[in-house]
Amino acid sequence: MSIEISVFSLYKKIIKNYYKHNNFIIFKKPYDKKIFFYSHYDRNSIIGNFFLIQNFNQDYTIKIYPKQIYHVNIQGFYKKQNFHSSFWEENSSFLTYSYRYQNLIEKAIRNIKKGFFKKVVLSRYLKISFRNFHFKNTFIKLICTYPNALISFWYDFRHGFWMGCSPELLMKCYNNKLKVSSLAGTTWEKNKWTKKEIEEHKIVTRYILDILKSYEGAIYIKNTKTIKIGYLKHLETPIHFLFDDKPDYYDVLNRLYPTPSICGFPKKESLDFIHKNEGYKRNFYTGYIGTVNQNSMELYLNLRCVRIKKDKKEITLYAGSGITIDSNIHQEYIETENKIKSILSQLIFK
């Protein structure tokens, strides 16, 4: 159970933990009316809950074990804000074309045509400098703009601040019930879905179903729908599974992750291409984050996120695109640009 506290008390806890170099997380789940706060206390926490943060390479894990979980009701967290202009509004022509990323997409398509893999998700990053970043107002703006996403803001002494607004549920377990979101394919504005996005989405759905069919239980697949995250649109197929017996959640997680929505298919070949060619470490981008306890696990892919290095006055933004045999190089680049804009436009500076 969580204890309700005032907004002022929440700010005090955030500041206190930061100056003590203590890990903490503040987050709001999709459509939830509560904002939760965990700060690391002890591995042997009495309540048995923790917040899990895993990087993409799966070689660094952060577990935040709280002594007590706190929450603030969303109504009390923000009032009508007169937000300062965002970085994007003042620098609308800031993004420049990345020829390296264009060449990487071209190389991936050649490999797909040779039959090495069917899909690979390639990403890039953008670094910007700042003087004074407004953490609180940016977090509030993300909550206002993306009510159907996981909004998160966390701190780790070794890795600094991370903030994000992820639209994608990796897995949600409770006892013997499981929900997985097959989310892939992106478009924007009035664009219609093409063969490329539909096939890209089917690769993810088939991958999830093939894994679940190896367990004893019943599968229920809901209709594919279009979901909107700001001005971007994605294809989503919710998949439910009822296990005959309560499973080992970590076994399911280890088999699911990384899914083709952030890696590719087949997994081994696409991962190998990413590690050899992407040219940078994703760190916690496309990793997973979420809550874990003895009876449940609710994890989201860490997408639409930024890393904030306060000491260096530097922000890193990340975006990726799923490459298939039907990919258009220019369109894939524009997709990453739009994803970067979707988070860059929310950043507020003093």
Tell me what you see in this structure:
This protein has 350 residues and is α+β, with helices and mostly antiparallel strands. The protein has one domain (2-344): Anthranilate synthase. It is built from 9 helices and 19 strands. It has helices at 7-19, 74-77, 87-90, 99-113, 135-145, 195-212, 249-256, 267-277, 329-344; strands at 2-4, 24-28, 34-39, 50-54, 61-64, 69-73, 119-129, 150-156, 160-166, 169-174, 177-188, 217-221, 225-229, 232-243, 264-265, 288-292, 296-301, 305-309, 314-323. It has a 10-stranded mixed sheet, with helices on both faces. Strands 4, 5, 10, 11, 12, 13, 14, 16 and 17 form a 9-stranded antiparallel sheet that branches. The longest helix is centred in the middle third of the chain and has 18 residues, at 195-212. The mean pLDDT is 92.
For the residues shown, what is the average pLDDT?
A: 92
Q: Strand count, sense and closure of the main sheet?
A: 10 strands, mixed
- Whole-angstrom Rg: 20 Å
User: Tell me, what's the shape?
Assistant: globular
Q: End-to-end distance, in Å?
A: 36 Å
Low-confidence stretches: none
Q: Give the strand tally.
A: 19
Keywords:
Anthranilate synthase; 9-stranded antiparallel sheet; 35% strand
Quick structural overview:
The protein is built from nine helices and 19 strands. By secondary structure, the protein is α+β, with helices and mostly antiparallel strands.
Give the arrangement of secondary structure elements.
Blueprint: E1 2-4, H1 7-19, E2 24-28, E3 34-39, E4 50-54, E5 61-64, E6 69-73, H2 74-77, H3 87-90, H4 99-113, E7 119-129, H5 135-145, E8 150-156, E9 160-166, E10 169-174, E11 177-188, H6 195-212, E12 217-221, E13 225-229, E14 232-243, H7 249-256, E15 264-265, H8 267-277, E16 288-292, E17 296-301, E18 305-309, E19 314-323, H9 329-344
Parallel strand pairs: 1-6
Antiparallel strand pairs: 2-3, 2-8, 3-6, 4-5, 4-16, 7-15, 7-19, 8-9, 9-18, 10-11, 10-17, 11-14, 12-14, 13-14, 16-17, 18-19
